[in-house]
Amino acid sequence: MDQSRLRIAIQKSGRLSKECQKLLKGCGVKLNLREQRLIAHAENMPIDLLLVRDDDIPGLVMDGVVDLGVIGENVLEETVMERQAQGEAAEFSILKRLDFGGCRLSLAVAQDANYQGVKSLEGKRIATSYPWLLKRYMDSQGVKFKSVMLNGSVEVAPRAGVAEAICDLVSTGATLEANGLVETDVIFRSKAVLIQSASPLSASKQAVIDKLLPRIQGLQQARE
Ligand code: PRP
Ligand code: ZN
Ligand code: MG
User: Is the confidence metric ipTM above 0.85 for this complex?
Assistant: First the structure.
């Protein structure tokens, strides 16, 4: 890859990907996106886009593989906690808070469960993709539990007999509802953010960022 071009990581597919592409388009970045291609070169600006799993974006920025990334604060905070626990570097800066990707990380239980507040989960199993955020919340509540790590389809856990509760992202609530679950406690509220690597940038890459930021600002103001 051309080292002189600004590298931005965005989600390949999922709730943030369409919004990210819309944002770049709105900034005047002409992208030549083709099905299954994981790198896209902008036609009119020195920008390369990496299309990756959202969970990988914070690490790619923290390791300096890419210059910028767009990611939900939930995934970002989880990665920071995980890296800190492992004694790994977790440096980055937040360039801009974005106005999309709103969701919450919540506890949920089966509709017919006898839930009397978070203390009801003492000693129970909770399925999640966010073990660190979950542990921080449960520690703050003084409730001991067992974490069951699932990378996806977390909502299936109670009916599958894998866990008594789940801790997962809720946006519209449709997924919980479809799986017979009710949201009980919101533990983290999240939106998308634009983050930057802590590695120093060349003057030409900085110039591209200086062009993009006011355009993003303008787009967000127009939407308010
Ligand atoms: C989240 C979450 C739920 C779903 C909830 O997944 O894991 O499955 O969205 O949305 P709803 O409340 O609108 O039904 P996400 O899109 O973040 O994908 P990922 O977990 O695969 O990254
Ligand atoms: Zn994900
Ligand atoms: Mg999901």
Answer: yes
